[in-house]
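Q: what sequence does this backbone want?
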């Protein structure tokens, strides 16, 4: 079987992938320092102001100057998207699907260059970066295929049971209009690209905003969409802060719907704003996680340790799916801790461009400072740091935001059990009986992912009782991380998601559409 890259397979890639990534990194690095514009109505648009951005790998490594949109730019982009809507929605299903699929094809040709940019901009290691670039490709293909296979979700219904007249009935699904996509920093390509693909294929036009830390990835997405030949105005890209540009998009009168991916705090505000106004507008909010893992006395501890380390510390814990709470049966806790410690000791931390470094920097100085604050809070609250706890400042590392992975055994009263930290910090509790472990695992306002290691007999109990949208049992590839379009639908329960329908699931695309019942009497 030939190698297929997913987050589950990325640990043993063929040698050629490394070679091609190194070549792409050299190519992309040679082009650093350029000016990156907004993309509105099919054109590059100069901005009134630009932000110079550096890599979290090394603050002296300048990535380029990135446009900061104004409220006026938002207006122009919204007007362009609105003007393009009637013609775009009128295209036949197959034609829109063809164009969306073509964006995916183009991205696939550029997958190594896109990954190199992701490593430079976010600081993720090469396999995480290649994974994200390929995941974005798969979103475009997946949604194009899904929409086409369902023939745009149009269905004929029985004629009314009338005598003397024929009354024909259909259910059709129609797009809403201009769909706003607001992306997070941690998967700036995939979590912009996925919702953009869904909105476009269903016939909406799009204005997309990247996070302040990651404007480059969004602009690279815009380049692929432009080069695939989508009509002007169908896709528009603006970069800038959430407070200014994001808020202007949310409040804009032409905004027909939103897909937001980010923190619970911002997501809840957006949901409220979208519920007010002349009518409620749809808001798909994919939000934070505080993801637990339960390890029972029957678990395969080697599998558990591998999955725990990958999910707690991969990408520096900066995944919504990251493992942050670990509940281990007291009879196996010491042995599991030992195995986790061994694996932490083997982690190479450093410049994410280098093949041997599995753990790169955290994203910015804010995250770096938060790390020190959380460590102080853990210690002050009686937690024992079993591993890690220091920022790394030796040599070249001092120019980036490098921190040690942390395993902290913490009293259950510690407030950090409840707060998403978004850093490589996992808290541990030894439990006596599994009912207590399940109660603790569910004792959070969030419910995104959850992991379990135990006997085959216990898996059904875990699945039945855990309050999470994405679950994994006995998975060494990741206790709580690593969903892939087409394999694991990805969405949160409770405060982690507003819809109960997962990304790339059977029910996802319909959320970008509104139903119209059509009765015609002949
Ligand atoms: N559930 C998921 O699928 C998923 C996936 C990735 C990340 N996340 C979550 O995202 C968070 C990390 O990403 P982040 O730090 O970029 O999140 P964030 O909430 O700070 O920002 C997300 C996006 O919202 C914008 N924004 C901020 N304030 C805004 C406002 N008032 N109005 C409109 N837009 C605004 C930001 O500029 C950014 O583009 C974590 O909580 C993580 O769990 C969730
Ligand atoms: N889809 C990714 C997480 C995305 C959120 O940050 C995973 O499943 O690990």
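A:
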């Amino acid at each position: 079987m030939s190698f297929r890259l997913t987050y589950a397979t990325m640990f043993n890639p063929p040698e050629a992938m490394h070679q091609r990534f190194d070549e792409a990194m050299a190519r992309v690095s040679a082009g650093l320092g350029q000016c990156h514009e907004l993309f509105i109505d099919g054109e590059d648009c100069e901005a009134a102001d630009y932000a110079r951005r550096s890599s979290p790998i090394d603050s002296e490594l300048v990535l380029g100057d990135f446009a900061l949109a104004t409220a006026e730019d938002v207006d122009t982009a919204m007007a362009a998207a609105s003007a393009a809507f009637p013609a775009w929605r009128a295209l036949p299903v197959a034609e829109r699907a063809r164009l969306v699929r073509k964006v995916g094809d183009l991205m696939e040709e550029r997958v190594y260059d896109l990954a190199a940019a992701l490593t430079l901009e976010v600081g993720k290691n090469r396999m995480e970066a290649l994974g994200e670039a390929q995941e974005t490709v798969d979103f475009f293909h997946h949604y194009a295929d899904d929409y086409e296979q369902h023939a745009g979700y149009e269905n004929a219904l029985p004629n009314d049971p009338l005598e003397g007249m024929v009354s024909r009935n259909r259910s059709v699904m129609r797009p809403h209009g201009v769909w706003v996509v607001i992306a997070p920093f941690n998967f700036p390509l995939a979590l912009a690209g996925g919702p953009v693909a869904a909105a476009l294929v269903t016939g909406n036009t799009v204005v997309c905003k990247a996070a302040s830390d990651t404007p480059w990835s969004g602009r690279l997405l815009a380049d692929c969409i432009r080069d695939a030949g989508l009509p002007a105005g169908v896709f528009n890209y603006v970069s800038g802060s959430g407070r200014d540009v994001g808020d202007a998009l949310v409040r804009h009168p032409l905004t027909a719907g939103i897909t937001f991916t980010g923190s619970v705090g911002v997501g809840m505000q957006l949901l409220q704003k979208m519920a007010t106004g002349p009518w409620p507008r749809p808001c798909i909010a994919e939000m934070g996680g505080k993801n637990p893992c339960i390890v029972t006395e029957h678990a395969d501890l080697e599998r558990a340790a591998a999955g725990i380390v990958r999910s707690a510390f991969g990408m520096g814990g900066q995944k919504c799916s990251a493992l942050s709470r670990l509940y281990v049966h007291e009879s196996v806790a010491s042995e599991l801790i030992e195995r986790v410690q061994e694996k932490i000791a083997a982690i190479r931390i450093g410049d994410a461009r280098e093949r041997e470094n599995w753990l790169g920097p955290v994203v910015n100085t804010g995250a770096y400072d938060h790390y020190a604050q959380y460590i102080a809070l853990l210690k002050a609250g009686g937690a024992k740091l079993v591993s890690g706890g220091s920022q790394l400042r030796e040599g070249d590392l001092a120019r980036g935001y490098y921190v040690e992975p942390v395993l902290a055994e913490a009293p259950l009263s510690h407030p950090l059990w409840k707060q998403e930290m978004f850093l490589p910090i996992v808290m541990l509790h030894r439990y006596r009986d599994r009912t207590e472990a399940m109660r603790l695992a569910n004792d959070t306002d969030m419910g995104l992912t959850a992991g379990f290691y135990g006997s085959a007999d216990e898996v059904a109990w875990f699945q039945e009782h855990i309050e999470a949208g994405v679950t994994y049992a006995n998975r060494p590839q990741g206790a709580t991380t690593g969903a892939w379009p087409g394999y694991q639908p990805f969405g949160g329960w409770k405060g982690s998601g507003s819809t109960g329908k997962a990304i790339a699931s059977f029910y996802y695309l319909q959320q970008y559409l509104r139903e119209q019942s059509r009765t015609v009497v002949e």
